[in-house]
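quick one, 60 residues, struct below
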Amino acid sequence: MNHIQTAVKAELDALRDFRNVPAAAYLYVETHAAKLADWDATGESVSNIADLVLDIVAAR
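---
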C-alpha cells in the first residue's frame, strides 16, 4: 500500500465520526491505487480525495 492509500484510509476513518463510510470505500482505495496517485499528483488534498472516493462509491 502506498502513502496516498494510507492517508486516504486514515481520512475515511476520521470521517466515520460524521458520515456513513461504507466498506466499499475502503475497497475502492485498495483497488484503485493508480487513480488515487493521479489525483494526488494533481495537487488534490487527501480530504478531497476521500470525498471523491465516497462520491464514486455512492454513485454505484
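The first helix runs from residue 3 to 15.
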